[in-house]
Amino acid sequence: MKMALRACLRTKPGLTGLLSQLSCSGHAAARRAPALVAQRSSSSTSQKIKVDFDQSSGVAVMHMQSPPVNSLSLEFLTDVCIALEKLEMDKSCRGLVVTSSQPKVFSAGLDILDMYGKSPEHCAEFWKAVQEMWLKFYGSNMITIAAVNGSSPAGGCLLSMTCDYRIMADNPRYSIGLNETKLGIVAPFWFKDTMVNTVGHRATEMALQLGLLYSPAEALKIGLVDQLVHEDQVLTTATETMTKWLAIPDHARQLTKSMMRKPTIDKLAANREADVNNFVKFITKDSIQKSLGMYLEMLKRRKA
Amino acid sequence: MKMALRACLRTKPGLTGLLSQLSCSGHAAARRAPALVAQRSSSSTSQKIKVDFDQSSGVAVMHMQSPPVNSLSLEFLTDVCIALEKLEMDKSCRGLVVTSSQPKVFSAGLDILDMYGKSPEHCAEFWKAVQEMWLKFYGSNMITIAAVNGSSPAGGCLLSMTCDYRIMADNPRYSIGLNETKLGIVAPFWFKDTMVNTVGHRATEMALQLGLLYSPAEALKIGLVDQLVHEDQVLTTATETMTKWLAIPDHARQLTKSMMRKPTIDKLAANREADVNNFVKFITKDSIQKSLGMYLEMLKRRKA
Amino acid sequence: MKMALRACLRTKPGLTGLLSQLSCSGHAAARRAPALVAQRSSSSTSQKIKVDFDQSSGVAVMHMQSPPVNSLSLEFLTDVCIALEKLEMDKSCRGLVVTSSQPKVFSAGLDILDMYGKSPEHCAEFWKAVQEMWLKFYGSNMITIAAVNGSSPAGGCLLSMTCDYRIMADNPRYSIGLNETKLGIVAPFWFKDTMVNTVGHRATEMALQLGLLYSPAEALKIGLVDQLVHEDQVLTTATETMTKWLAIPDHARQLTKSMMRKPTIDKLAANREADVNNFVKFITKDSIQKSLGMYLEMLKRRKA
């Protein structure tokens, strides 16, 4: 585990899809130290997430800056949720753009280090945080736009799919998709539901079975993203697009969004505990742990 | 209200999308006079709806001719339903083409004057008529083809979506879509269900949140209409298309149509009263009435 | 009936869609002779279905070779299910390619001779076999690829839709689709569900109402098949494609496939008896039998 961790410390977003399939957060072990919890809660919000809120437009931009690849660790997920909740409660904030400050990657997805060699209790806590992130984003009253300025596999793809609109950098080196099967793990039903709502049943069936990572052009073609622009224009385009959405009366838009998404949200909300248990039971299996371990080894060797 | 009414009397289908977003029926106040009800019931059927039934082909053409913009008022909806019911009961009538006799507009949608400044009772009666129209058209045993020869926002779009096939005039000045949110109101769940059945979940989510009105070319691309032809050819093409559909044995086609649509129809049929209550509660809110009032003022100023 | 049978004996896959809409199996009457049942069970497996299993790759190829057009008769369906079951139980078999050894046709669909002039008991037994085929293929743990090297109407289309991937010969003379309504019969709900899962609600609604048979190019456009290749390359491409699918860990892929398909499978599994009763009640109606009889006469005249 220790060597795997060290490998991860050096992990940078790769140019190949494989490398960014799952991810590990740079300094996970250190950050888990209980003594630092209280202090980190606030400081990490500013360290790993930078929120620029423009009071005049009512639009916030959330920059994910958790090196090296914005892995969705338990800690980072918690920070993201706290930041989102604050904005959600601020009536003057009507729109949110989510983007990455890390080069070449939007988010590399769920942090493998929160699933590998961890206690069932830790895995359960981690999974609750993943659920929480999805529930909050998919059900947000704000207009949410994903400015996908880099690769976005697995949990990164999920995060972008929770938004109302997805703009991706037109760089063929980037990819996006739910590639869980390639690692021997399975996207849970609400990942699947979110993708079906986005690209339909058939495209989802093939994407999930094959763990497909799509190039920006392919992602646009199947509707996984809504628009491609030059890398430099992703954030600007997101802001311009936001203006169009802000023209719609909030109340009517929110009710409409809720009507579209509520059935999918209710399905998880009614089954959170069972879903946590399923995840913990699956992820702690010897065979699955072995798969994850081999994957970490592969990452390590790649970086050596 | 009086000035708004006068403004409406002069309303013509505009070339901009906004003007045709919702509509008001020319002489609503006069037509509401109770003393005229009995007489109108039959005469208006011939005045506002002209049905040409060709016994030899088994195909009827329903021309909507309610000036200026075929607004779906309580009265007009009632007439439409009566006309449809007659055809439905006539075993020799196998197909129905729905089209407009008004220039530039198919139908401008639900009549705003039946929702603005009206008693809850009136609003409830109006909404039941909207439901009735949808239930009858979406569940029709006949082959129904919409010959969309003009703009078709909101309720007009809904009417066309209830048909088995949609042919639209290829005039970029026309538009079609469920644009309710732009007025601060919300398309009910069965409008949404009909659109999801037509263009899928994702396109519906974006269309409804943004209240999008699509050009004919855009509508074709997302599948909101099935075919574009020159303005002069809409009705002819509808008749030709009907021939193809008439080649299918009625019984098998009807059972198949019912299998596809029954779950969606049953959902409203089982919840009509709750849906009426929701509508009345929503539409009679001060904030919503104010929105509608402002919209009527805008129409008035435009026409001044 | 006898003449119709003789006509069928000479039936070859036609170049027109109509001829291959439904089908009749060459020597049905003879094969039904009870005395031959036991003997046939094993021999027909080798005669009408040839399975090549490559132990090294873990991939089996099922060649349907039931002349003239791979009609899905009660007997052939039984053989197909037995062959599939054997492969399913063989842990070393991970992938299955289904293809046809008959020229110009993949499968002409359900055998009309098992529905025409038969006892309700026979019809019920036949329908159970159709259900069984669908349940086994749609729920298969193996990777299933349809190498559609010829026309594939009705039940033939259903069989190909149960697979994970469909490669079709790019020959405009071939067609694919659920064309039941053209014969006055109705595709049952699970045929419909399978098609909705493949091409979406709207395309299914139109396809089923009109009984559309699509050219390969049209089928690709709506997503009814996934890939077109030259006639000579169908099987080779299937094998190459299989390699891509084999790269995914079986366990994760199987769980994912089950997650996508289980709700649809459960729906029939919970309603098999009612579905059999519906079918028998419908197919034994005088009007339907008359339709089928006329269709058989037409086939006979065509071949005279």
Automatic annotation (TrEMBL), chains A, B, C:
UniProt entry tagged with the keyword Transit peptide: yes
One CC-aspect GO term: mitochondrial matrix
Cellular location(s): Mitochondrion matrix
UniProt record, GO biological process: fatty acid beta-oxidation
EC number: 5.3.3.8
Record's keyword terms, sorted: Acetylation, Fatty acid metabolism, Isomerase, Lipid metabolism, Mitochondrion, Transit peptide
Keyword Isomerase annotated: yes
Listed pathway(s): Lipid metabolism; fatty acid beta-oxidation
First and last residue of the signal peptide: none
GO molecular function term, any single one: delta(3)-delta(2)-enoyl-CoA isomerase activity
One Pfam family per UniProt: ECH_1
Catalytic activity: (2E)-tetradecenoyl-CoA = (3Z)-tetradecenoyl-CoA; (3Z)-octenoyl-CoA = (2E)-octenoyl-CoA; (3Z)-dodecenoyl-CoA = (2E)-dodecenoyl-CoA; (3Z)-hexenoyl-CoA = (2E)-hexenoyl-CoA
Top class in the EC scheme: isomerase
Family label: Belongs to the enoyl-CoA hydratase/isomerase family.
PANTHER family, sorted: ENOYL-COA DELTA ISOMERASE 1, MITOCHONDRIAL, ENOYL-COA HYDRATASE-RELATED
Subunit structure: Homotrimer.
Annotated function: Key enzyme of fatty acid beta-oxidation. Able to isomerize both 3-cis (3Z) and 3-trans (3E) double bonds into the 2-trans (2E) form in a range of enoyl-CoA species, with a preference for (3Z)-enoyl-CoAs over (3E)-enoyl-CoAs. The catalytic efficiency of this enzyme is not affected by the fatty acyl chain length.
Record-given protein name: Enoyl-CoA delta isomerase 1, mitochondrial
Gene from which this protein is expressed: ECI1
